[in-house]
Amino acid sequence: MPKMMLSLPVIMALVACGGDEKPEKPDPKTDPKVEEPDNGGAPEPVVQNLEGPARPALLLTQAWFWTGPDGMPNPGPARLDIWREGETGWENTRLEDPDSNVFHKAIPYGDGILTIGAEGPYLKYWKHGAEGWSSDVVWFKAEGWGGKFNRLRDLEIGDVDGDGVDELVIATHDGGVVAVAEWDPKVGGAATVVEMDARPDTFVHEVEIGDVDGDGVNEFFVTPSDRNKANASQTGGVAMYSWNGTAYERSWVEPMGQGTHAKEVTVHDMDGDGISEVFVVNEAEIDPNDKAKILHPVEVRQYTLTDGAWSHTSIATIDDRQTRFLVPGDFDGDGNTELIAAAFKAGIFHITPPGEGEDAWAVDRFEQASSGFEHAIYGADLDGNGQLELYVAADDQRELKRYTWNAEKKAFDKQLLGRLDEQVLTWNITTGTL
To answer: Could you give the CA distance from residue 24 to residue 41 in angstroms, rounded to a whole number?
Structure first.
């Protein structure tokens, strides 16, 4: 497989989050030469079989790039890297799919893995058996949504209509569509899909599920915005969908029209009372007259529903342009749930709720030398010791890392698990047993 050395601006002109950006030819003064494929064309997809018994695994979904004969970077096939710990350390098994140019997410489900892709927008179900990998198409929007891009951007699984059966909730680009799919992995076949709220030039970035009103039926939340633009703010909002017995009704947590938008929303029962809290991460607001100037930094907000109306408080700000991951969990083992945020360039932050007699959340940047455009993180107890670990894909440093809380030092210890490839963008991390 060819090696690549392309600058971040060139990569970001091509990745699936892009809006109106146009790729530029690499500058030979700043972009080192890359080795071209021997055949002068697109590399063949890599499909590697899982070896050995099933064990805890990290699933990294990625976009990656190769250089064509004209010197221009091209997106490769959608990539899923499966990292598992073996006798000699962590090992990677790779699965690529030429039907899409990026996997945005992969979720173990049933006895297989669900993936969402972009260009083309495939929802697939993968299984691994004695003869290797096989896949079935669960949903494919062949005609797209009438816009410039056709992408499945996020996927969450949960019962959102109160029937006791999970649905698949999907965010798409760039026609504003939010989709709910009815599909049973035991039955297979194509999903029955309801599409809602089409709106031209609208990117729906994130989906989260939780019961925020305590009625026993989950709501789900999405973060739509105007079309993505490079180095500029886009207006956006946060919407909630509720099942009314016959259909999903949309209401606004934060109406479209603010000076920036959110790509990240986290919905989680922080205090164990059965009602989920809602946290939204707003991107920084950029000065329209000076793209290098930030008018307002990244802001983490907590939204509260009272008598049918939403209000918010600011719990943290991060001096960066964007923060795409905010994960909940009891990472320090004190019995309380905290938040961890991974920023674009500013590092990783431990955000803890107020203690007794305190008003403000505490914000501690415990890692500065970690960064990436998405900077994907995930919390899981893969070693089974009862304590959450934090897993991090730092694309800039090409590091797959694990952070564990050291109670004696009252700090996080870091362990390097493996090296990421050059010129990849890791969109998400999930876990499973594979």
So the answer is: 20
Kindly report the average pLDDT of the chain as a whole number: 91
Burial of 34-66, coded b for 16+ CB within 10 Å and e otherwise, reads beebeeeeebeeeeeebeeeeebbbbbbbbbbb
Output the CA torsion sign for 264, 285, 315, 386.
positive
Pairing of strands 56-67, 285-287: unpaired
Amino acid at 356: E
Task: Quote the percentage of the chain above a pLDDT of 70.
Answer: 90
**Res 11: pLDDT:** 52
One-letter amino acid for residue 207 of the chain: V
Report which of 86, 169, 84, 165 is spatially closest to residue 128, judged by C-alpha positions: 84
Is pLDDT larger for residue 58 or for residue 41? 58
Rounded to whole angstroms, the Cα distance separating 171 from 352 reads: 29
Residues whose CB falls within 8 Å of the CB of residue 388, separated by 6 or more in sequence, listed in order: 329, 330, 331, 379, 380, 381
Structural element, H or E, at residue 11:
helix 8-12
**Largest Cα–Cα distance in the chain?**
67
**Rounded Cα gap, residues 327 and 219, in angstroms:** 19
Please tell me which residue, 176 or 40, carries the higher pLDDT value.
Answer: 176
C-alpha 386/C-alpha 145 separation (Å) is 45
Q: Please say whether the dihedral angle defined by the alpha carbons of residues 128, 132, 138 and 141, taken in this order, is positive or negative.
A: positive
Beta pairing partners, 309: 306
Convert 245-260 to b/e letters by CB count within 10 Å (16 or more is b).
eeebeeeebbebebeb
Contact 411, 400 (CB under 8 A): no
How far is CA 258 from each of CA 225, 261, 299, 321, rounded to the nearest angstrom? 10, 7, 13, 16
The 3-class SS string of 304-347 reads EEECCEEEEEEEEEECCCCEEEEEEECCCCCCCCEEEEEECCCC
pTM equals 0.91
pLDDT tens digits for 101-133?
999 999 999 999 999 999 999 999 999 999 999
Residue 70 confidence class, pLDDT cut points 50, 70, 90: confident
Residues 6+ apart with CB under 8 A from 306: none
Cα of first residue to Cα of last residue in the chain, in angstroms, is 25
